[in-house]
Design brief:
About 15% of the residues lie in helices and about 35% in strands. By secondary structure, the protein is α+β, with helices and mostly antiparallel strands. This is Fumarylacetoacetate hydrolase family protein.
Length: about 200
Amino acid sequence: MKIICIGRNYTEHIKELANERPTEPVVFLKPDSAILLKKQPFYIPDFSNDVHHEVEILVRISKVGKYIDKKFAHKYYDKIGLGIDFTARDLQQKLKEKGLPWEKAKAFDGAAVVGEWLPKSDFESVDAINFGLERNGVLVQQGNTSHMLWKIDELIEYVSKYFTLKIGDIIFTGTPSGVAKVEANDELRGLIENNEMFKLTIK
């Protein structure tokens, strides 16, 4: 199982980090060891003083595919979920300045929260899903998949050109604006529409 992540897929998030708007999806990977174990807290790693939360809609692949045409992409996933791409922003910035890969800042142990899953059939359109992240009871990130630069089916078409998609693979589809540093004792709660998808504590 692999975790495929998409960066810079929401305009307002690109603006808040003063990044250049990409002309094609930004793709990076996380290993399965990055998945935070269920009901476990997230421990801020000792190599960063600035870990940010990034809430994202997740897609679970249900069928093996390669070079998938966008019009057939809907046949290759069956579940929609919510997660967090934890990012060591200070480390990422240093790596970016040197033109180096981001993995140390994005793929460390516990850096991928994978919440509960909902059947794709629960949604009238996967391109109009409301989701958000509460921090200590306050809504700090709010998004809708209609605001993606590249929608889910377009991402599957693009990613499958480079990687064979296998059953159980997870795609993190990008984060909206509102990313911020987490602190010890924070409580994070993720929502799709009115469904609680995960809840966790920062240590």
